[in-house]
Each structure stands twice: as C-alpha cells, then as structure tokens.
Design goal:
The protein is of the alpha/beta class. The chain has three domains: 57 residues, Alpha-Beta Plaits (2-Layer Sandwich), CATH 3.30.70; 161 residues, no CATH class; 49 residues, Nuclear Transport Factor 2, Chain: A (Roll), CATH 3.10.450. Helix content is 31%, strand content 20%. It is built from 13 helices and 14 strands. The termini are far apart. It binds iron/sulfur cluster (3 copies).
C-alpha cells in the first residue's frame, strides 16, 4: 500500500534510549519482546530485523522505564496509597525491621529484611520463586540476575545495587523457561517501573508476578566505567574488591587484602550512568515509585 509506514518500536528505543546512553540494562525489553528479537548483554542488541515479520509493534519502547510511554497507567497501582511525602513518594506505612534469624542478618548487609521476606514467602508457598540479583562468584562487583527456587537461594540476594543487573530479563525466563506462576521480584525503581509498565500493557507474563519488592537507589555505574575509574585512580583491580558500601559522604571500598578506601561522593558521582543523572525517581516531586522496600501483592488489601 502506498504511503504505509511500518511502526517498529525498536527503532525509537535504539535512537532515543540506547544510543543516548540512557539504558540501565534492566532487560525488560528482552523479556517483553513477542518475537524474542532482543538480547541484553553489554547493551541491548536486536538479533534480527523484527520488521521483516511485523508491521506494527510498540512493546519494547512502551515498557522501557526510560521512555515517557505508559507512565500514568503504570503509576496508578500505587497512587491510591494513603500517604505521600516529598522525599518518599506514596506509602501506606513506614516500618523499621530486621530479620529475626541471626544467620540471615549475618549473611546480609542491611539487616536481611528482603532475604527474610523472600524466605518466608517461599516457605509458606505464597510464591514459587524469586527473581533476585546476586554477586557473581568470580567478580564481586558484577551482579547476576538469578531465579531463586528454594529458601537458601534467598540468602544470596543482594540488597543494594551499584552496577546494573538484568533482573527484568530473568523475570521473563522465570515464566518462559521455569514455568513459574507466583514470582516475587526484587528491583530498584527503574526495574519496578518496567514491571508496572508490563502490567499496564497487560503483557501475558505479568500474570505470573505475585510480589514486588523495591529497593532504594541513588544511582548505578556501568561496570566497565567503575572498574576503569578504580583501577586508574586507585590502582584497584575489579578482582581485588570485596565490597563497596555507601557511608554518608563516601563510598567505602574494601579489598581482599583488607585495604579500606574512602572515595569521596562528589568524585564517584562523575561516573554514574547517564539515566541516573536525570532519574525520574530522584528528581520528580511526589515520585510514586521511590524505592523503599515497598511491596505489592495482587491478593492483598494493603
Ligand atoms: S518485535 Fe521485539 S524488538 Fe521488534 S519492536 Fe517489537 S518488542 Fe521491539
Ligand atoms: S527496557 Fe531496560 S534493557 Fe531495554 S532499553 Fe530500556 S532500560 Fe535498556
Ligand atoms: S538512579 Fe534511577 S535510573 Fe539510575 S539505576 Fe537507580 S532507579 Fe534506575
């Protein structure tokens, strides 16, 4: 037909998000693509030209957390919460908690609340799996998206993320490859927004989501950029690092030989990912998806 133009979302996703360095590698586009045309590794790649089979597909652009598509629809899930604060966004209750199990507390860095919640939910069969990020056994700085199936798996879930992790892609795998129906999902705000957008889209995989747990996030670093910065400025190779923690005005890096370095925040901030500089969750007043540990269950009243 003369004048007919194909509308393929990937073209806009690539031009406006990926090529502008705004992608935070969540993997949602890979999980959502109906033709399995995208793979997210160092950056999202299209494996073949999906427009050869389709005339119209808006999905990957719409569900990416760094586009304005579906924002209003995606945030309706939390905007009926009772309370709202400028610094927190919407919330129903604020609770101070820690895991009661000394084992869980000892294994984690932030009192083990997320790990304990997941173990409990799995044990009581509220969920049948949990999508988490865990540290790579070979490189502490690197995070691996992971599908936890037994309570012990939950002990390795990290409760903060300084580098990206494609947990939304792992959510797709939990559905397609593992056939899980009651999945808990743990992510930072842009990951949670990607899932909310899938929900607003009524994507078929979202019916398998039971619980979301959002984490606070200030920013993340590209693994390559962070590694280069630490090596170049402090002579620390990625393989030497045991942990990186935020402590008020510094990042505290601990190495295998027990060196402790305090990196000033103003210096570290020069290396954060592009999207984090203008993150809607930090700068938008009344941010509805600010990442405290907040939960949402389709079956619960609260
Ligand atoms: S088929 Fe996949 S890659 Fe192509 S536009 Fe749709 S979601 Fe994007
Ligand atoms: S959906 Fe996630 S992985 Fe895909 S382009 Fe957007 S931020 Fe990157
Ligand atoms: S600061 Fe915002 S954009 Fe950056 S990783 Fe965190 S939630 Fe995502």
């Amino acid at each position: 037909m003369r004048g007919f133009r194909k509308i393929i979302a990937y073209d806009d996703l690539k031009r406006l998000v990926i090529d502008n360095g705004l992608c935070t590698l969540c993997g949602a586009c890979e999980a959502a693509c109906p033709t399995h045309a995208i793979r997210v590794e160092e950056t999202p790649q299209r494996l073949y030209n999906c427009s050869e089979n389709l005339d119209l597909c808006p999905i990957c652009y719409d569900i990416c957390p760094h586009t304005d598509a579906l924002i209003r629809e995606a945030t309706r899930f939390v905007s009926d919460a009772l309370y709202r604060r400028e610094s927190l966004g919407y919330y129903r209750k604020i609770l101070l908690a820690q895991a009661t199990s000394p084992t869980i507390r000892g294994l984690t860095r932030s009192a083990g609340v997320v790990n304990a919640l997941l173990s409990f939910a799995l044990d009581r069969k509220i969920i049948d799996s949990a999508v988490i990020a865990r540290k790579s056994p070979r490189l502490i700085l690197k995070l691996q998206p992971s599908i936890g199936l037994v309570p012990d798996d939950m002990l390795s879930a990290v409760d903060s993320k300084v580098v990206p992790c494609a947990v939304a892609e792992a959510f797709g795998r939990a559905v397609y490859e593992y056939g899980r129906h009651k999945i808990a999902f743990v992510g930072i705000p842009c990951h949670i927004l990607a899932l909310r957008k899938l929900e607003a889209w009524q994507h078929k995989i979202i019916d398998n989501l039971s619980i979301t747990i959002g984490l606070f996030c200030l920013w993340t670093f590209s693994l390559g950029v962070l590694s280069e910065y630490l090596l170049h400025n402090y002579g620390i190779a990625p393989s030497e690092i045991v942990s990186i923690d935020l402590a008020l005005e510094d990042y505290v890096v601990t190495t295998l030989d027990n060196r402790v370095l305090r990196l000033p925040l103003y210096e570290v901030k020069n290396h954060i990912m592009n999207s984090c500089r203008t993150c809607r969750f930090k700068h938008r007043r009344r941010s509805p998806l600010k990442g405290l540990v907040y939960g949402y269950s389709k079956d619960s009243e609260e």
